From TrEMBL:
InterPro entries: Acyl_CoA_acyltransferase, GNAT_dom. This is Ribosomal protein S18 acetylase RimI-like enzyme. Transmembrane segments: none annotated. Residues 190-322 form the N-acetyltransferase domain.
């Protein structure tokens, strides 16, 4: 029997997660973490979270979310997770949980289901082969998981593979050819450095040029509050960024993204921003960095040049409702 969310299931769902979801590499959940990720999340909807019961015991948990203010939010519902107890991982149970999520999406007028990095419910996971170094969110469904295989069977189309990449920063150095590229860019009027509101302007205009609401909110707030952000500027006007430069309590370098306005591409600024970002993280004692990028994204070469290696792959998936 599948029922909608009720607080009475909280402890059992956490126990289920810590038994099953961790097998796909997800981080264990405490009560505080469960509340932060799910029930206290502004996008949590009790009618979009479901529990599978068998003889009144919790054997499955599924959660999705929607929001018109999210990227693609007017048309898409986001699948956050479907977790089933080992003996209940059947196509029938996966299908029942998926259909419950999709029904709710359609009730709210959504035209498609997405497994996508824009989902605001961030699921942390452990980086394989490390002492529990972690990444703060999953950009899709792990390709080695049973859920991935089921979603493909259920008609979800793989739109991209996201490569999760990792680097320990203790041996990081900016190579000389990148320093030479920085000197060349400087001769053309470009600087790449930490944002300084006394020297730089045009942050809002730069962020508007990317048409990314998440970047507009986060990077705009960071530059306003004095949180370090690496920027590229042309004659004092900000035309690109990487950051923010925040060392998380777990030792990871947290950053929201990197971008250069199209009209200023071709000067090597993307790689300069990224190497300067790594340098800035190392300078504040950050232990490691992790990121994800599309397997066909040319930027993957920049990350590999910096020493990053791919440690896990996730699938971005979608099904359009008929």
């Amino acid at each position: 029997m599948i029922v909608s969310w009720n607080e009475q299931y909280r402890q059992s769902v956490i126990a289920l997660w810590n038994e099953e979801a961790v097998k796909d590499g997800y981080k264990e959940l405490t009560e505080q973490a469960f509340e932060r990720i799910f029930t206290a999340n502004p996008y949590f909807d009790e009618q979009n979270a479901f529990v599978l019961l068998a003889q009144n015991e919790v054997k499955g948990f599924a959660c999705g979310c929607t929001g018109d203010d999210l990227p693609l939010g007017e048309v898409a519902g986001y699948i956050t997770c479907i977790v089933l107890a080992d003996e209940f991982q059947t196509d029938e149970n996966y299908q029942g949980m998926l259909e419950a999520l999709e029904r709710r999406f359609q009730q709210l007028g959504k035209k498609q289901g997405d497994v996508l990095f824009f989902n605001p419910m961030l699921l942390p996971w452990y980086i394989p082969g490390t002492p529990k170094h972690e990444h703060n969110n999953a950009p899709g469904v792990p390709i080695e998981s049973k859920l991935y295989a089921f979603l493909r069977q259920a008609g979800y189309v793989e739109r991209a593979k996201e490569c999760a990449m990792y680097l320990k920063l203790d041996g990081f150095n900016v190579p000389e050819d990148v320093r030479a590229k920085e000197r060349k860019a400087a001769a053309e009027g470009y600087t790449v450095e930490l944002f300084d509101k006394e020297k730089h302007n045009g942050v809002k205009e730069m962020l508007n040029g990317f048409n990314n609401l998440l970047w507009q909110r986060e990077i705009g707030q960071c530059t306003a509050d004095g949180v370090p952000v690496v920027i590229a500027a042309y004659k004092g006007n900000v035309i690109g960024f990487a950051g923010p430069v925040i060392r998380q309590d777990n030792g990871r370098g947290y950053f929201a993204g990197i971008g250069v306005l199209p009209e200023h591409e071709g000067h090597g600024l993307g790689s300069l921003l990224f190497f300067k970002l790594c340098e800035a993280f190392r300078s504040i004692g950050t232990e490691y960095m992790s990121l994800y990028t599309g397997s066909t994204n040319p930027a993957i070469r920049i990350y590999e040049k910096a020493g990053f290696t791919t440690v896990k792959q996730f699938s971005v998936m979608r099904r359009e409702f008929v």
